[in-house]
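User: Please predict the structure of the protein below. I'd like the answer in structure-token form so I can feed it into my own downstream comparison script.

Assistant: Understood. Taking the following sequence of 114 residues as input:
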Amino acid sequence: MTEGSWQVFQLDDLLENVEGSEPRFFEFLRVPSLSCAVYRLPAGAKDMQAPHLEDEVYMVIKGKARLRVADKEHEVRSGSILYVQATAEHSFFDIEEDLSLVAFFGASTPLWQE
């Protein structure tokens, strides 16, 4: 739903856009200061991400995998919230259960000047 300066999204509706047996990414919001997407990696899939120019926060909706950021690894599962700094090398791997995430990307340029 769109209403002037605000929008409402339903997670179930968004996740329908990334169903299937292949990795899928669906951006559902882009404004100057933020973009948001749903991302799905089926069990056993390979995450082909490259570093981003924006800070990023992932919220794991369902699934189980590991996240590698630079040289550190972390187990992720439903309910995990992950922050990845801009330009950091990162990828999901050892995807044991279909992984569904919401990704929030910050602005690639400062929102304000000090």
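That's the full token string. The chain has one domain: 2-106.
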